[in-house]
Every structure is written in structure tokens, then in C-alpha cells.
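ok so for the tutorial part 2 we go from a plain amino acid sequence to predicted C-alpha cells. step 1 is just haveing the sequence, like this:
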Amino acid sequence: MSTDYQQAREDLGVRLREVRLMAADGRLTGTQLAQRLGWPHSKIYKLEGGRQTATVEDLRAWADGVGHPDAFDELDARLKGFESHIRSWRRQLASGHRPVQDTWNLEVGRSKVIHVWEEAVVPGLLPTADYARHMFLRYADLQGSVRDTDAAVRARLERQTWLYTRGHKFHALIWEAALHALICPPAVLAGQLDRLAGTIGMDTVELGIIPLGASLKIPTANGFWILDDRLVIAEDWHAELWLDDADSVATYLKVWRTLRESAVYGAEAHNVISRVRRTLNPRDFIL
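step 2 — the prediction. this is what the C-alpha cells look like for a chain of 287 residues:
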């Protein structure tokens, strides 16, 4: 978790404590507020100590519980301020994957040049419908989220129209490991590999593959997207990290360019994809 995010969470905790101590009917202890809200005593101190991220519902209950419902707007604004950078999957997927895809489509639509690094999956501008469907199902199972799979797939495929707009450029780097990952049946992965091979030579796509045996200057850590030079979106298991400060963007661009030094392009990239495709065995897939 980023230092700035943790500091913002601690600052919110300090403010929650101040609001509690100014309760309308007299100074409340943490134990008293917990009893009033029906919460475990530990939750009060985790929130006030910045060790747990409050939900909107937590903040509303807190403001009402201390007799200052008018404090909710300020508390909610503080939460939104730091969650604009750390977007937890639990909150984002409360209504399913489609709204998340719609948000991505808006940001991609605003961009002209995109750099992406993916070490485990095919980048979101290049999947087939079947590959995307299996991805959404896997993540819905993991997060326990709403299964709006068909709507999410349609939204993701809508994003691909970006690739057919003059003046756009998609600089994609993929680790070869992502081409082997059987998160879908082999037949689906074979179709996905064919799709990747077909993008080589497109005017708007520059596809680089880093072979498993390539020499690396830095580790192949988490995937990320750089939209123009204004926004980085990096993904982790608990959340997406949205960074728009110049220093962070510059750091991720430096990482991308360093990884690029290990990539192959054109005919060499096509050969890597073809080699992986020949290894597929229908019996390898595990439900």
C-alpha cells in the first residue's frame, strides 16, 4: 500500500476520532460508540488508527452515531479523495464488472497513445470474446462479485474500436508466460493466440513479446497501463492503483522502456506465439 494512501487513511482516522470526541450528547469513548453502532470494539480503533479503510456506510453510521449527521459529507469527501488513487475491487465490483469496464472505456477513449505491460494475461484491448469471458468468470469467482459476464464482455470488446482510429498507437509488451496461462480451455487460448498474431503489422499496434529465456534488466512484476503521459493504472489483487502525478508516470515509463529492451517484435514475436500455440493440449485444462 502506498505511503500517500496510508497517510490519507490515518488522517481520516484522526478526523473520525475528533468527531467522536465532539459527540452531540457528550464525549463518547470508543467502547460506547461501538456499542451504539453494534460494532466490535476493535473496529473503532482500527478505523481511527488508519488500520482499516472505512466504507461509505461506516462513515454515515459514524456521523449519525455521534449525533452529527452533517459531518458525513466532509468524511465522505475525504474518503473519495484518497480512493480516487486506490480503487478497491470490493467497492468497484459491487455492481459487477460492466461498470468497471465502462470507466476504463472512458479513460481509453480520452487517450491517443497507450503503453501497457502484462506479465500474466493478454492486454484488455486485444482479447477475443471467449478469452475475456473466462477472465471475467475467474475474477467473479475470486471476488464473489455479480456475474454480469455478457455485459462486461460487450463493454470490453467495445473498447477495441479504439484500435481502428487513425492517430492512435498501442504499445503492448507481454511476457511469454501469459501466452501459456490456461485460464481458459486450450481451444479458447488457441483462438486468442491467433488473434495476437493477427495484430502484428497493424498500423496502430506495436506488439512486443518477452521470451521466457530472455535476459531481464528488472523483474517482471505487476502489469500496468500508461495512458498518454497523464495516467498510470496498475493492478493488484486488492485494488487498482491510479496515479496521475508526473513522477509516478515517469517511473512507469522508465520501467516499460527497460522491459522493452528484452522484447522481440515482428517475425520473431510471431514465432514465439506460433511456438506456444503448438504446445497446446486439450487435456491440459482444469475446471
